[in-house]
Amino acid sequence: MVAEKAADSTEKNENLISSTRTVVKEALDKLGYPEEVFELLKDSLRMLKVRIPVRMDDGSVKVFTGYRAQHNDSVGPTKGGVRFHPDVTEDDVNALAIWMSLKTGIMDLPYGGAKGGIICDPREMSFRELEALSRGYVRAISQFVGPAQDIPAPDKFTNPQIMAWMMDEYSRLAEQEHPGFITGKPVVLGGSHGRESATAKGVTICIEEAAKKRGFEIEGARIVVQGFGNAGSFLAKFLHEAGAKVVGISDAYGALHDPQGLDVDYLLDRRDSFGTVTTLFKNTITNQELLELDCDILVPAAVQKQITAENAENIKADIIVEAASGPTSAEATKILTERGKLLVPDVLASSGGVTVSYFEWVQNKQGYFWSEEEVEKRLYKVIQKSFETIYHTARTRRVDMRLAAYMVGVRKMAEASRYRGWV
Ligand code: GLU
After folding, report:
1. Active-site residue set
2. 265 contacts: CB under 8 Å, gap ≥ 6
3. What's the Cα-to-Cα distance from 250 to each of 246, 269, 299, 333, rounded to whole Å?
4. Whose CA is nearest to atom 7 of ligand 1?
5. pTM of the shown model
């Protein structure tokens, strides 16, 4: 049983890293870069593995394994979240660091990509244990990171409180305040207004732009959101506020459907901190049924590999906006594109978080803080411009939006690496 599980997860990870590399290679080929550029970019420049001993509440010591990958720092310091999750693997962290390079390239931020992760299940840990783990991780990686070197942030199952502990630990080690060491902090500790909802705001802007391209407005549109975590729940809220009809939502346990529109405020009120809400209802449908619902826009905001060659033919939505990482397989992307669907890829749609992280870092550097309206205005400008660039690239180069996004994402770091004389 154990061996079988390991084999499964190796296969999954090979897929994530290998599918990422395949598109990076395609993008570099389209742009006319030589093979050596791909050789440089196909892997992280640095990968640190750490072991973190934590005294648990029952008195025992548990040793956790964590990683930090820095993909490419030709453009500037590296940037990317730290996830606390039982499924974390070295290969995934490596692939996700490449994704961060793409995202920062797409949004034209002065960073390269990084990613961190710890194999743990925060749902089964106490507050005290989580604090000890967060501080232990920072002690283990402190030589490797820093405000001008590599700047962590929240990711799956990490939050502003965890960022606060990490910032405090780093500042203690450095014997001076270093708010710019990490982003996604609580506002009272130098966090930025709008950071917590930034990913969902970014997705909302992409949905609006995509709808405009198809000639309709968000108001009155029927939207299905798969996932009710940080991104999914804020997203449902923003879409509801914008007058859309959220006709379906889901969590890890099931999905809810109402063709008249769900009571989003009620669902937001009842969800727990890990995004579970469907367990409160009897008339649920499966996640698979949810994806195939009749709607205008489908937003997979949950986990990888949801739309595959098996169900891509059955997707009814005209626009698919990927708020999660890797929800659509390569075959499915092809099928959806052939069917004339507009697919807005993850590396574009989910870049609102890192963009406001950049704003937070800038505010920390200058010691002057912006209002929520200021943050929103700037975020809108950045995402709208990137959406337009990628849409235009897709049209003029006759490629799908995913390949177009990868082309825009790799170009800056390929150029920067070349100017530095690395390739
Ligand atoms: N973890 C988020 C992402 O994957 C945010 C990263 C950041 O803010 O640096 O995009």
Report:
1. 115
2. 240
3. 11, 15, 11, 22
4. 354
5. 0.93
Residue 274 has pLDDT above 80, yes or no: no
Is the Cβ atom of 78 under 6 angstroms away from ligand 1? no
Cα 373 to ligand 1 centre (Å): 21
User: Cα–Cα distance between 202 and 187 in angstroms, integer?
Assistant: 20
Alpha-carbon distance values, 111 to 75, 79, 370, 416 (Å): 5, 6, 21, 11
Nearest-atom index, ligand 1, CA of 81: 1
What average pLDDT does this structure show over 214-227?
96
CATH code for the domain of 288: 3.40.50.720
Q: How confident is the model at residue 188 (pLDDT cuts 50, 70, 90)?
A: very high
Amino acid at 365: K
Is the predicted pLDDT of residue 317 greater than 90, yes or no?
yes
Flag whether 387 is in a domain: no
Q: What pLDDT, on the 0 to 100 scale, is given for residue 13?
A: 46
Q: How many domains does the chain have?
A: 2
Quick one: which atom of ligand 1 is closest to the CA of 156?
A: 1
pLDDT at 154: 96
pLDDT of 34-56, one tens digit each? 999 999 999 999 999 999 999 99
Calculate how far, in angstroms, residue 94's C-alpha sits from the geometric centre of ligand 1.
14
Close Cβ partners of 15 (under 8 Å, ≥ 6 residues apart): 305
Say how far apart CA 314 and CA 70 lie, in whole Å.
39
Both 224 and 326 in a single domain?
yes
Average pLDDT, the chain: 94
Q: Which amino acid is at 415?
A: E
pLDDT of residue 6: 36
| Ligand 1 pocket mutation pick from 20, 98, 100 by most atoms within 8 angstroms of CB | 100
For ligand 1, atom 10: residue with the closest CA? 354
Supply the range of the domain harboring residue 275.
198-340
What's the pLDDT at 4? Answer: 34
Q: What are 252's two structure tokens?
A: 């890890």
58 CB burial (10 A radius; 0-12, 13-18, 19+): exposed
Say if residue 12's pLDDT is above 70: no
**Cβ contact 341:312 at 8 Å:** no
80 lines ligand 1 (CB under 6 A): yes
